[in-house]
Write a structure and sequence with these properties.
single chain, alpha/beta, Rossmann fold, six-stranded mixed sheet, 15 helices, about 45% helix
Length: about 425
C-alpha cells in the first residue's frame, strides 16, 4: 500500500463516529519530503541495544533532537514556509514560546521572509535571544499563550502577515509526517510507533504516513497526566488540566482541530505518563544514549518504561522530538534521578557531641566507599539529648545496596543511622 491514500487505512481504535473531512494522502507527505530535502536533516533512526535489553522490546530511536534548532518543529515550519514563499508571501507571524518559534524564524531567514514571533512575557531570555538570532522580530506580549496568540492574530491582520499555527494546519502536520516516512524507510519492520502529543501535529502526520505505508502498524500517543487535553478530546474524558509540566513542549490546553480529526482516524491509543516517569526517561537517555532530550521528547520512552509488558517482544520506534531544555532544570532532574536510583542519599547519624565523633563518622563512610557531598551538624533543632548531636550527610553511592552497606558500617561503628 505504499502508493495508497492515508484515508484507505483500516478504521482505528480511537475516534467515535467522527465524520473526517480532512483528506491528507501519503503523496502529500512524500511531496513535503521533497521540499524538505537539503533543508532539514534526515535524522538517524537506530536501535538502542541497551534500552532494548532493559525493556524487552527492540527499541529504535529517531533523533529529531539533532535538527539545527533541536526539534522536529522545523519540518512543519519549513514545509509551510516554502509553499508560502513560492506563492509570493513576503512575511509570516507565529505565536510560540519555544520550538515552533525557532523553526519558523530559522526557515523564514533562509527563505528571505520577514518573520514576526509573538512570545508571552514570561518566555525565558535564552529562548527570546535564540529566536532573535535568526533575524526574527520578537514581540513580547501577554502573560499567557492565549493572550500572545490573540495579539499575533491582530498583528497578522494589521501588517498583512500570514499566521503560521504551530499545529492546527494541514501543511504543518504534513511536514511533521515526514518523520514517520523516514522511520519506515530506515526500519521497515517497525510494528509500533510511540509519539508525544501536545497540539497533535506530529502524531497526526506520523500516523497518517505510517498507516498508509503499513496499515497494521500500531501508533500510540503519549501525553502528561498534567495536560491530557488530546486524551480527553479523543476518549471523551474530563481529566483536569494542570498549570505546568516538565514536558512544556506538550503542555497544551487546547488540542488542534485538524490534528484531532486525523488522530481519531489513525491513532490506536493515547496513554498518560507522570512527571517522575519523564524525569527518569530524560536521565536514562542522557546516561545510556549520551543524548540530551527535553521532557516532551522523553515522553515516549517514559510510556514504554511505565508499561513494558504491553510492548514486550515488539519492534518499537520512539521519536525523540526535541532537545531544548533549560540547563538549571536539567541539573535538578539529574540530581533527582540520582536520588531515585539510590546513587545520592541523605543519611541521618546520631552521635555523642564529643571531639572526634565527626571524624569517625566520615572515616567509616569513606572506608565503605561512599563519597560525602554535604555535612550538616544539627544541635538546636533535634529531640536528641543535649549531649548528643545529629549529623546529616549527603553521600554519593553506587546504588541502594551500597547505601545499606554504608548504614551497616555506621551501625557496626556504634552509631545510630538511617536514610532520610
Amino acid at each position: 500500500m505504499e502508493d495508497g491514500d492515508a484515508g484507505e487505512s483500516p478504521a482505528p481504535k480511537l475516534g467515535r463516529g467522527q465524520n473526517a473531512h480532512i483528506m491528507i494522502a501519503l503523496q502529500d507527505i512524500r511531496l513535503a519530503a521533497g521540499r524538505l530535502r537539503g533543508q532539514v536533516l534526515d535524522t538517524p533512526c537506530v536501535e538502542s541495544r541497551t534500552l532494548s535489553q532493559i525493556t524487552g522490546s527492540q527499541i529504535f530511536l529517531k533523533f529529531e533532537n539533532l535538527q539545527f534548532t533541536a526539534s522536529f518543529k522545523e519540518r512543519g515550519a519549513c514545509n509551510k514556509l516554502v509553499q508560502l514563499a513560492e506563492g509570493g508571501t513576503r512575511g509570516v507571524i507565529a505565536m510560540s514560546a519555544g520550538n515552533h518559534a525557532q523553526g519558523v524564524a530559522y526557515h523564514a531567514q533562509r527563505l528571505g521572509l520577514r518573520a514576526v514571533i509573538v512570545m508571552p512575557r514570561f518566555t525565558p531570555g535564552v529562548k527570546v535571544e535564540r529566536t532573535r538570532s535568526f533575524a526574527a522580530e520578537v514581540v513580547l506580549h501577554g502573560d499567557t499563550l492565549e493572550e500572545a496568540r490573540s495579539h499575533a492574530l491582530a498583528l497578522a491582520e494589521r501588517e498583512q502577515l500570514v499566521f503560521v499555527h504551530p499545529y492546527d494546519d494541514e501543511a504543518i502536520a504534513i511536514g511533521q509526517g515526514t518523520v514517520g516516512l523516514e522511520m519506515l524507510q530506515a526500519q521497515p519492520d517497525l510494528d509500533t510507533l510511540i509519539v508525544s502529543v501536545g497540539g497533535g501535529g506530529l502524531i497526526a502526520g506520523v500516523a497518517t504516513a505510517a498507516k498508509a505505508l503499513k496499515p497494521g502498524i500500531e501508533v500510540i500517543g503519549v501525553q502528561t497526566l498534567r495536560f491530557p487535553s488530546m486524551y480527553n478530546a479523543i476518549k471523551h474524558q474530563d481529566l483536569p488540566l494542570g498549570s505546568s509540566s516538565i514536558a512544556e513542549g506538550i503542555a497544551v490546553s487546547r488540542p488542534g482541530r485538524i490534528p484531532q480529526e486525523m488522530i481519531a482516524r489513525h491513532v490506536d491509543d493515547i496513554v498518560l505518563v507522570d512527571e517522575g516517569d519523564i524525569e527518569q526517561a530524560i536521565v536514562m537517555l542522557l546516561e545510556i544514549e549520551k543524548t540530551l532530550v527535553e521532557g516532551a521528547g522523553a515522553a515516549p520512552l517514559a510510556a514504554l518504561l511505565k508499561n513494558p509488558e504491553r510492548w514486550r517482544g515488539r519492534k518499537v520506534g520512539l521519536i525523540l522530538s526535541g532537545g531544548n531544555i533549560d540547563p538549571m532544570l536539567l541539573a535538578a532532574i539529574i540530581h533527582r534521578g540520582m536520588v531515585r536510583a539510590g546513587r545520592l542519599a541523605r543519611l541521618r547519624v546520631s552521635a555523642r557531641d564529643v571531639p572526634g565523633s565527626l571524624a569517625r563518622i566520615t572515616a567509616i563512610v569513606s572506608e565503605a566507599g561512599a563519597n560525602i557531598d554535604e555535612v550538616h551538624h544539627q544541635r538546636a533543632f533535634t529531640l536528641l539529648a543535649a549531649q548528643n548531636v545529629e549529623v546529616e550527610l549527603v553521600v554519593q553511592t553506587r546504588g541502594r545496596p551500597h547505601i545499606q552497606l554504608v548504614l551497616d558500617a555506621l551501625h557496626a561503628g556504634g552509631f545510630a543511622a538511617e536514610e532520610q
